[in-house]
Amino acid sequence: xxxxxxxxxxxxxxxxxxxxxxxxxxxxxxxxxxxxxxxxxxxxxxxxxxxxxxxxxxxxxxxxxxxxxxxxxxxxxxxxxxxxxxxxxxxxxxxxxxxxxxxxxxxxxxxxxxxxxxxxxxxxxxxxxxxxxxxxxxxxxxxxxxxxxxxxxxxxxxxxxxxxxxxxxxxxxxxxxxxxxxxxxxxxxxxxxxxxxxxxxxxxxxxxxxxxxxxxxxxxxx
Length: 222
Description:
The protein is 0% helix and 26% strand. By secondary structure, the protein is mainly β. It has a domain at 7-99: CATH 2.40.50. The strands form two sheets. The chain has a five-stranded mixed barrel. The chain has a three-stranded antiparallel β-sheet with strand order 7-8-9, with no helix packed on it. The termini are far apart. 9% of the residues are buried. The mean pLDDT is 88.
């Protein structure tokens, strides 16, 4: 048979005893928890700061009772009505919510500091935010396949080196400025312009070791 035993403790300078009693949470209104005790000595109580797990309806709790004119406090949650879920409340509005093996952290700011390493491993990782900042002295990335969509991209680099097996680019309008040298080395070069091709240079040279062919309906030289 289950007993809800009242454990009396005397407070210094007061003959009224402080009692610990087991009760069941039956409801909540604001910061008050409604309780049901076997001896009927408790009706409601507040959650103590030491009770980090938030009580819920049906939970068995340990309550400290200090008299008729003093509020009772829930000291701890002894047994959960729903074993696979709990809310851990911390000072400053920080909360940890655990449910069916999942964990959610609610806080205004979260910062992790490690002197050696921080590692995250999961089959799927999702990151979402309005503004993001990344700062590394050196970064190594290995990605098998990437699908990306950007609105506006601005890149500033001191040196850029790319090595690809096949490069395909498509643009509606393309502009490129090179202040010094723009050199292209290729096995074969083929350019196809649908309308007009215009080349302007201070000096121009066309050198070929073999055959040079110019064909057009009208050719103007000089």
